[in-house]
Amino acid sequence: MNGIYRYKNNQPVSWFNRSASMSNQYCLYCGCFVGEGSAVESNKEHLIGREFVPTGEFGEGNLFNFIFRTCKECNDEKSNVERHISSVSLFNSPARQDSQTHNNLAHRKAAKDYHPNKKGILVKDSGDEFSVVGRFGCISMNFGISGPPQGDPRYIELLAFRHIQGIFSLITSRNPHAAEGTNLLSHKYFHFFGSYNHADWGNSYLLEIMDRARKIPCYANINTANGFFKAIMRKNKGGNGEWFWALEWNKSYRIVGAIAQPNNTSNVFRDLPNLNWRELGIQNEIKTRMREESPLNMKKIYYL
User: Fold this and answer.
1) CA–CA separation, 75 vs 38, rounded Å?
2) Mind listing the pLDDT tens digit for each residue in 130-185?
């Protein structure tokens, strides 16, 4: 990430100043004017919420983060989304197996955060359980399936959008104090492909996507908070100028997508190998299917 405005290696990048005239002049999320004289209430934003990753993983403030001015409405919305995704991703994180501190923190968060899709149910109790009745040839089977808490798909996509918006502005803006020097990412160019939990990072979809993406020139490769936040941005040098992006949250979720023209599927996501889904018919009035998750082969190295 060379040539970035106010970038310093292994330190937070700050475009925020107490004086609005000395901060970035536009909210990097919605694009509204937040400079001096703006009627819009604004405040300080950390692209990676300080409580999104486990406490203490940013060290003494000497690790990368991106700090800038946003409108209060966007900041409050993102904070609410971050709280939920942090609770779910830490509760499902393999980091719990390696650290009692992380395990305790994950339990505390999941015991305080109510799942937005399940009224009155805490994240720690929000795992799915249902019975499946199926017939395989002449054999009839009835068995139960249980799964861990799942993040709200709307929250996952929105938080991914905000993270990519911030990184896009950071690496493409020449001078955020001037309108002509600030680049903002509109939602119409943002493409969300999918999110995958750590137990499924070895599925054929994701492996093929990452293999294709590695051939695209890299413009940003972020690994901060001791590996609890990772992001990569790659841009094609061809005429379409498409971007590929990927995020990793709390060693738990990997999310991938693109920046491209509306209604255009990036080449990275075309003609992918089939995933082996098994149709289970109608369960509780919902069409149900399942497949076995595919963890990474730890004998090989797979980079984000």
Assistant:
1) 16
2) 555 555 556 655 555 567 888 999 999 999 999 999 999 999 999 999 989 999 99
pLDDT tens digits, residue range 250-293? 999 999 999 999 988 888 999 998 888 776 666 556 666 667 78
**pTM for this structure?**
0.90
Residue written as tokens 């940013």? 58
| Count of residues in the chain | 304
Q: Which parts of the chain fold into alpha helices (H)?
A: 72-91, 95-98, 100-110, 153-172, 204-213
CB 225 within 8 A of CB 63: yes
Token pair of 224, please? Answer: 């901060």
Please say whether the beta carbons of 219 and 234 come within 8 A. yes
d(CA 181, CA 35): 14
The DSSP result for 66-119, as a single string, is EEEEEEHHHHHHHHHHHHHHHHHHHHT-THHHH-HHHHHHHHHHHTTPBPTTST
